[in-house]
Automatic annotation (TrEMBL):
Organism placement in taxonomy: Bacteria, Pseudomonadati, Bacteroidota, Cytophagia, Cytophagales
Provenance organism: Echinicola arenosa
The protein's name: Carboxypeptidase
PANTHER family: RETINOID-INDUCIBLE SERINE CARBOXYPEPTIDASE, SERINE PROTEASE FAMILY S10 SERINE CARBOXYPEPTIDASE
Alphabetical keyword list: Carboxypeptidase, Glycoprotein, Hydrolase, Protease, Signal
GO molecular function: carboxypeptidase activity
Domain of life, per lineage: Bacteria
Signal peptide segment: 1-20
One of the Pfam families matching this protein, by short name: Peptidase_S10
Amino acid sequence: MKRSILSVLTFLGISLSLMAQEKLNSDSSATSKHQVTIKGKVVPYSATVGTQPVWDNDGKEVAYLFYTYYERNDISDKANRPLVISFNGGPGSASIWMHIAYTGPVLLNIDDEGNPVQPYGVKDNPHSILDVADIVYVDPVNTGYSRITDKEAKRSMFFGVNADIDYLAEWVRTFVNRQNRWASPKFLIGESYGTTRVSGLVNRLQGNEWMYFNGVVLVSPTDLGIDREGPIAAANYLPYYAATAWYHGVLDPSLQSKDLEEILPEVEEFTVSELIPAMVKGGFLEEERKESLAKRMSLYSGLDERVILEHNLAVPTSYFWKELLRDKGLTIGRLDSRYRGIDRQDAGTRYDHDPALTAWNHAFAPAFNDYMINGLNFKTDLNYYLFGPVHPWDRSGDRTGENLRSAVAQNPYLHVMIQSGYYDGGTDYFNAKYSMWQMDPSGKLKDRLEWKGYRSGHMMYLRSEDLETANDDIRDFIQKALPEKGAPAKY
């Protein structure tokens, strides 16, 4: 890895390398200089690791957030330099995933399909978006190195759909103020639950902090509070089942011989036009029609027709992950169904563990800790929470899909891009499309909403080919969302 050894350390308060076990200094930073080659061109940049407080309504410090901020340092015109604010999800997940595997200037050591390899560590990321935008990766309270500092603070201040949005909006405003980035075009990117977070944040920041954005990127989005109960919830998984069955080569030869993106439109059309209307009838669906549908579903899913009928056409995802390769003694992953696992026994209705998630933990945790110490000269005895203690999480009042629609409607500059992996069973690609379709029932905003699919799972960027394509898509999205000079924000 070609990285500058020279570190220019700027300390505000106590040195970050000498913090106590329980928490860091709540308002400190350390900056080092580096360079990376992106798209064949050398990009010099500064990397700042730091902490910034969270205050309550009375101005009392109650917590701090840890962040890593990458800023290209050969560009002085910050007014025209985009800023990307990045969150992961969980809830309870740190920002590590997109930080060292997707958009950032370093990339963890994995093979071309995303599997762990040794030695652990990171290398330069030739596909990073740092060439076109500065990036800050933020760890919400009780994730990464971020911690509550006031023992009297109520957990409900942080751990819920709307509480999360409330304090993060204030934190982002403060960060932008401190970094003098008010004039910059701004973008939010969130992955998984992070899509819930940024969909609510953009509306709150525009409406309460008067901070306006050019774009929001939703990576493997959640349901965003958009209703899909009953038949729709059950039927919408079929296209994902078809993609997964195709990947594992268990479809009927008439379909298996076709390319993935040839068969998915057929499955999607069947789902919308035939399966959902039929399932609406529930137990009153004609038996002959039910059997006919089960036969088609079997063709598309790789599951036995009998299994589908036993589940009244509504096969749970947990059962699918256990059943699809049961005859081979294998399970498949939830978050990325390309991964295969081995259970204690072949019998049962769900797997023992998600083989995708265990593989990712294996790859990420050692690499990130090594990078903090040896790449950014950041040393602490504090444990970096990949998944932190944030439960119980209050999920009530989730209207984040509507929040995002409102933000787009009120800001003619604002664009949205959704990125999905075809093999993601946690936040599947077809439900992401469904959310996009339902977000704007008027259809008047659809020219600023777009969806992109990739042949991988929840973290589509772990596959080398998709890493390049997905970053290029973000790069193009950023450029497209920047208005021409002097173009007014109006309809």
